[in-house]
Amino acid sequence: MRIIIVKDEPQIRVGIARLIQSETVHQVAASFTDAEEALQSYPWSEADLIMTDIKLPGMDGLTMLQQLQEKGSQIPAVILTGYADFNLAQRAIKLKVLDYLLKPLTTDELHSCLSKVQQQMNLTDGQNNSAQELSLEQQLSLYLNHWPSDPAHIRQQLAMRFDVPVDQQNTLFLFSLQSLDQESISWTGRYLAQGCNRLCLDDFMVLCQPETVILLLFNTAYNPYLEKNLDRFLLPEIIKNVDCICTSVRFNGIVHLVQAYHEAIRLLPYRLYLNRDQVITQDWANSLQLKRATYPQQLEQSLRDAAIQQDSTAISNLQLTLSQWLTEPRIQPEELRAILARLICAWVSSSQLPQTQHCIDLAALIRLIDHSMYPEQLLQIVEQLWQQIKMDPEAALSGGGGNHLSEQAIALIRDNFPNDLTLTDVAAKLNVTPEYLSATFRKSTGMTFSAFLRNFRMSHAKRLLLNPKLQIQDIAVAIGYRDPKYFNRIFKEVCSVSPGQYRSTCLGQRGAQCISPNQTGC
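Now predict its structure.
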């Protein structure tokens, strides 16, 4: 990959560039000290990834990314910053930033990040095939998601297959699956197709995508009972078996298909205001007549006071207010989430407990709020946050729970060390923040998580090196390093000798004791 770095601090910018050049197979195409220079000086069509700080002289990094998107650039982006700012993190999520990395950035984290980006690029390349090699369903799926395609050709094929008049009414059902496993997506697609056949429907198409399943019904104006039959016989069974959200949009003419698809996506957040087993229709959403929200400044102040005084009264008021917003819809669901995020930001930032910022990951909270589709999820976030804030973090760090947490982390390292493994991955599996796990792990073991993982891998590498049939590059992969050069350097740093020297010394002694850990530093 060709990577662009935008960072105003020379030492960090040069350090990241050196890491990329020396420890990965990727290259740094250019580096800049500010966003405006980057926008004006580089042909972005030649870049594969941009790594940028948020805070930069003049224009900030997120504004730069927004301007790139407005110009039509689809370049993936990774944010690198030294702090977790709640509002900036929310902007980064809205701009579809791939990763949000906090300094200091470790080599393992950089490898993991670039690996994820490369995987996404490989997937994109696989999707960008010639339209002539794809089925009509595949072409239509790419067309809906703005991949290069021939819309006139696709519309012509649809009209020929389903005999769709130019201005005829059609209906689009969108199923957004909350569990994105391929089995659930495939089952939903099969069940929809079988159900439409049982209802003796001819003019329909099912599209299975990575996160959604689409049911297209053509010429629906001729069958006024069609949607009622679907609601009664087909959709309840799907919603019962698969955790999903279903929206429905009518549209006239195939030319408006993409517009209908995006309208169906826009309706998904309205799930906050409707029962799980109901279809969200465009008519129902329009009937709500939602108004612009007024920010509850008084509630924010009471939350700030509650955080300082550890008073649960304001928390109960927040839960009551949130319940009222959810049961009596008055504002757009996006505004509700934004208000809740702002209230929580004020609440957490006012806490006087010394370790609160380490125990509570604000960026993760924003993601939870943004991705919450059901009312009970938002209420649960508030309740869990209150339980976390009122807990004494010092006791949590010094008590027996910390040792147990570290033991769980070590068990995960033992089971997963051959894979790409980071502190963030392990923290997510243990349902704690990376900062909290880092502090707890270091207190319990006397070393950092990355140092423990590195030493664990080196210890395993030493055992594998005693087998002369194994190639060193294969050993590197077996213990979690995709780049043999990087493995060689780390091994030498830890053990004071290269893997080849270690093997030669051990095997050359013919039964004598191998290099001891004290001699190597391992």
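The domain at 447-522 is CATH 1.10.10.60 (Arc Repressor Mutant, subunit A).
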